[in-house]
Write a structure and sequence with these properties.
This protein is mainly α. The protein is built from nine helices and no strands. Pfam families: Mannosyl_trans2.
């Protein structure tokens, strides 16, 4: 029998595959309501790298930055140019830059820097969600003192109606990961020994 945390990790990963598949299917079948991803002026400074290649794959990946995701991708690409950009705190944009310049750097010449930033955000947020689900389960076991109830709570966490925000270019996944991890260590008493 697999350890319960491993089962939650598999469940969370499966939920991300399902959510992303449904999201991409909906984008293929329905015209997106938000058109903010197509409005992409060049950076005000020369901070950005060379222009992105104009390929259908690059455009499709870049168009996945919608709603607030545009405001997280823009500081990652151009820096904080406008006052309203400061509402979007720097952890996610800095993480996108780090991933785009290290792990996903070989993809930049093929897809372009903006598309790689968006791809980095999707990968980062989905990995962070899976880790957050594991901490959610571990915390639930501590609080509920019942593995079955903790597992049911984890299922609800993985398949909640707002689940698409945990897989998009939003800061919710990182926030959930750091919050649940911190609360877990406080409840488990490990915070005092660190």
């Amino acid at each position: 029998m697999a350890p319960p945390v491993a089962g939650v990790v598999r469940l969370a990963a499966a939920s991300r595959v399902l959510v992303l598949s449904l999201y991409l299917l909906a984008r293929l079948l329905l015209r997106p309501y938000d058109t903010s991803a197509t409005l992409h002026p060049p950076c005000l400074s020369s901070f950005s790298s060379s222009p992105d290649p104009n390929t259908p794959v690059s455009a499709a990946i870049s168009s996945l930055a919608v709603w607030d995701g545009v405001h997280f991708a823009r500081p990652a690409e151009c820096g904080y140019e406008y006052e309203q950009s400061f509402a979007f705190l720097p952890l996610l944009p800095a993480s996108l830059v780090l991933l785009a310049r290290s792990l996903f750097a070989p993809l930049v010449p093929i897809l372009g820097y903006r598309a790689v930033l968006v791809l980095s955000g999707y990968v980062l947020n989905n990995v962070a969600f899976v880790a957050a689900a594991a901490y959610f389960y571990r915390l639930s076991v501590l609080i509920l003192k019942d593995q079955k109830a903790a597992y049911r709570a984890s299922v609800l966490f993985c398949f909640n109606p707002a689940s698409v925000f945990y897989s998009s270019l939003y800061s919710e996944s990182l926030y959930a990961l750091f919050s649940l991890r911190g609360i877990f260590y406080v409840f488990s008493g490990l915070a005092t020994s660190i």
